[in-house]
Write a structure and sequence with these properties.
With 474 residues, the protein is α+β, with helices and mostly antiparallel strands. It has a single domain, classed as Amidase signature (AS) domain (Amidase signature (AS) enzymes, Alpha-Beta Complex). Helix content is 38%, strand content 15%. It has helices at 11-19, 25-43, 51-60, 102-109, 152-159, 176-182, 217-227, 245-249, 272-287, 303-326, 337-348, 351-371, 403-410, 415-420, 449-462; strands at 46-49, 71-75, 113-118, 130-131, 135-136, 138-139, 142-146, 165-170, 185-188, 209-214, 257-260, 291-294, 377-381, 424-431, 437-444. An 8-stranded mixed β-sheet has the order 8-10-9-14-15-13-11-12, sandwiched between helices. It has a 3-stranded mixed β-sheet with strand order 1-3-2. α5 runs parallel beside α6 and α10 (303-326) packs across α11. The protein starts with 10 loop residues before the first helix and ends in a 12-residue tail after the last helix.
């Protein structure tokens, strides 16, 4: 018998029911599968379904962890032994992993049942999830719009209440962008907080990290408690937390010094409803007792230029690995036009260009560190325009010149915190008149997820979002 109250619980609550034997892991899995069948044909969030893997986990006996029995999705950029991982690319559509990534191992140790993979754009390159291989992942709030990217499948599945928490990763905003577009909570951790091995020590030159998107703040905090910490191959280590993150999520944040802006870091005009929502949240923060002032860090370099150089080099290496494996040149039958163009651009760049991009990222990081000497938290819109429409970004177009201007307008503020390695979160605090979510982004000093979790817990109480459900909802 399916567990029909499933949707009213977060993952921590579901795990507590399993612990008390009020519901079984099998019942939770059956409900997640039923919910996938109900809404996934509309949103296309769960692109690889391996229900048998999750059932084998349960039959074998789940570890005793903080999320024992909770259904879970791994993003289709991470590997799980014996299951298909495509990276959103046609060439890998039938690939089966022969080992498990370190972060996935830690998710398993936390007790989750991994019943599938959530959609990602090819190699996670876009802030929308519309791979040629699987087609577009649609926003549960409005199916004509994207759920964001690159963790668009994860955010759409959580927003539509298929499950309360799902794996996500962020190299330029890919946790925060879909969290904003889909109306869920998403925190990007400090660089090196969570592991990236065993196959690599860092992603995108240190920009990329993995964590989750969730309905509740406490799920994100408890999951970070479960998975954080170095591994033998870690090239560097994040500062140790003062106390468990779950404890932080329930603590009073005190009176914080919060700087805010309702403008793009480039000085461009942003959507007026988003600007108004940002000012409204700034006023809410002042009403909660925080010291709030309007000011923003100045860009020491252009994040888009540094990002494009470093991401292109990483993309070129992925293409090279595929060519070595399949012993032929890759074509548009194998990868999308954007992926091959990015790899081609990297071949035209020099090693000096790569070091210059690293230096620009350092200059941005240094400027942000200086800015945070005089504030605890910085608030700005996660996205500067509403969620993109499906098809607005076309990665198969022969002319890709439309992409850069859209990215600059849409997500100008997310990547700089990947460069600095600081923690940053998107909190679902506003919706526009058309009913689309508008996330607010809060960032803190490197290593200080604690402040963000405390503030998020306070905002979750002051302006709850858990019971605000999208039109497409399981």
């Amino acid at each position: 018998m399916a567990f029909k109250e499933y949707g009213s619980y977060d993952a921590t609550g579901l795990a507590d029911l399993v612990r008390k034997k009020q519901v079984s892991p099998g019942e939770l899995l059956d409900e997640a599968i039923a919910r996938t069948a109900k809404v996934d044909p509309q949103i296309n969030a769960v692109v690889v379904k391996h229900y048998d893997y999750a059932k084998r986990q349960i039959d074998k006996g789940l570890p005793d962890g903080p999320f024992t029995g909770v259904p879970f999705l791994l993003k289709d950029l991470d590997i799980l032994e014996g299951t298909r991982t495509t990276f959103g690319a046609s060439i890998f559509k039938d690939d089966v992993a022969d080992h498990t990534g370190t972060l996935a191992q830690r998710f398993l140790a936390a007790g989750v049942t991994i019943f599938g993979k959530s959609a990602s754009p090819e190699f996670g390159l876009m802030p929308t999830t519309e791979s040629r291989l699987f087609g577009p992942t649609r926003n549960p709030w409005n199916l004509a719009h994207s759920s964001g990217g690159s963790s668009g499948g994860a955010a759409a599945a959580v927003a539509a209440r298929i499950l309360p928490v799902a794996h996500a990763s962020d190299g330029g905003g890919s946790i925060r962008i879909p969290a904003s577009a889909s109306g869920v909570f998403g925190l990007k951790p400090t660089r090196a907080r969570n592991p990236l091995g065993p196959d690599r020590g860092e992603g995108w030159g240190g920009f990329s990290c993995g964590h989750v998107v969730s309905i509740s703040v406490r799920d994100s905090a408890a999951m970070m408690d479960a998975v954080h910490g170095p591994e033998p191959s870690s090239p560097y280590v994040a500062p140790p937390p003062a106390r468990p993150f779950l404890e932080e999520a329930g603590r009073d944040p005190g009176r914080l010094r919060i700087a805010f802006t309702d403008k793009s870091p480039y000085g461009d005009a942003i959507d007026p409803e988003i600007a108004a929502a940002t000012r409204e949240i700034a006023a809410l923060l002042a009403g909660l007792g925080h010291h709030v002032e309007e000011r923003a860090p100045a860009l020491a370099a252009d994040p888009a230029v540094a990002m494009s150089t470093i991401v292109a080099a990483n993309t070129a290496l992925n293409v090279r690995f595929a060519e070595q494996r399949f012993k032929r040149a890759m074509t548009t039958d194998d990868f999308e036009v954007l992926t091959l163009a990015s790899a081609h651009n990297a071949q035209k760049a020099t090693s000096t260009d790569y070091v210059a991009a690293q230096l620009a990222a350092f200059q941005i990081s240094r400027a942000l560190a200086t800015f945070f000497e005089s504030c605890d938290v910085f608030l700005c819109p996660t996205l500067c325009s509403p969620p993109l429409r499906i098809g607005e970004l076309n990665t198969m177009s022969e002319d890709l010149s439309h992409i850069a201007p859209i990215l600059r307008r849409y997500m100008p503020a997310t990547a700089m915190f990947n460069m600095s390695g600081q923690p940053a979160m998107s909190v679902p605090l506003a919706w526009n008149a058309a009913g689309l979510p508008l996330g607010m982004m809060f960032s803190a000093r490197s290593g200080d997820e604690g402040t963000l979790f405390r503030l998020a817990g306070q905002l979750e109480q002051a302006r709850p979002w858990k019971d605000k459900l999208p039109p497409v909802c399981a």
